[in-house]
Amino acid sequence: MQNTRLKLLRTAARLFAKNGYTSTSVRDIVQAAGENVSSISYHFGNKRNLYLETLKYLLSKNKDYIFGGNRPLPTPQDIDKLSLAQTWKALHRIVDKVLDMKFNRINVPLERIFTFAELEGSAEMLTSLKAFSSPINLLVRHTLAKLTGIKENSSEMVLLAHLIFLQINLSECDRFMILRALGENPSQHTPPAKLKQAIWQSIETILRSYKKGKKNEKISVACNTF
Fold first, then answer.
1. Nearest to 58 by CA among 118, 125, 4, 123
2. Helix (H, G, I), strand (E, B) or coil at 125
3. Radius of gyration of the chain (CA)
4. CA-CA distance, 197 to 95, in Å (whole number)?
């Protein structure tokens, strides 16, 4: 039973990402999955519930990719125990994980589904998205707060965190065009060194612009030691 549910989720994710919610029928999904219509009713109730569960499934995969693996990311409590130089390296690891996720195309189905839906203004979809983004947002803001002195829950921190991630928020088209322009294989799953170097230089410049008071020299040292 669990295998059938997972098969339906994987198939629905592929078809919703390819065709959008409206243009994907329940029949399309069960035919592609090799199941019958009753399996949708049994596991999800209806197409809308399947759609929302598909989003949760994709968000969970992204979350597992970012926080899992052999080198798990630090927790906010771990960040408190680090020096500034170590905190900068922790930020590097966080951004590196997200960049690798994008080049491994883990997030492509999810991004395409949200593009089709235009976020719908749906409370259900936004709740799922918030559940996924809250842990990474908390970790990033906590890390940036230590590096800059900006209050973790301030509007200034919200803008700074988004500005940092704008540096790596590559769409599928962006990734393809960058690799082609650099003479790299567009199908490769590893960010080229030139791109990583440019991103870190950009992030360092942004952080330096947000330095406050006595933290100026400390952050400069932390950045330069990486």
1. 125
2. helix
3. 20
4. 12
Cα 55 to its chain centre, rounded Å, is 13
Q: What's the pLDDT tens digit per position in 42-83?
A: 999 999 999 999 999 998 888 888 888 777 889 999 999 999
Place of tokens 């509007």: 155
CA distances for 6 relative to 10, 17, 50, angstroms: 6, 16, 11
Please give the Cα distance from 71 to 83 (Å, whole number): 19
Exposure letters 83-114 (e unless 16+ CB within 10 A, then b):
ebbbbbbbbeebbbbbbbbbbeebbebbbbbb
pTM to 2 decimals? Answer: 0.77
One domain, residues 19 and 66: no
The total domain count for the chain is 2
Identify the CATH number of the domain in which residue 169 sits: 1.10.357
Residue span of the structural domain in which 26 resides? 1-45
CA 212 to chain CA mean position, Å: 29
Helices (H), the chain: 2-19, 26-33, 37-43, 47-67, 76-80, 84-103, 108-117, 123-148, 155-166, 172-181, 193-209, 215-224
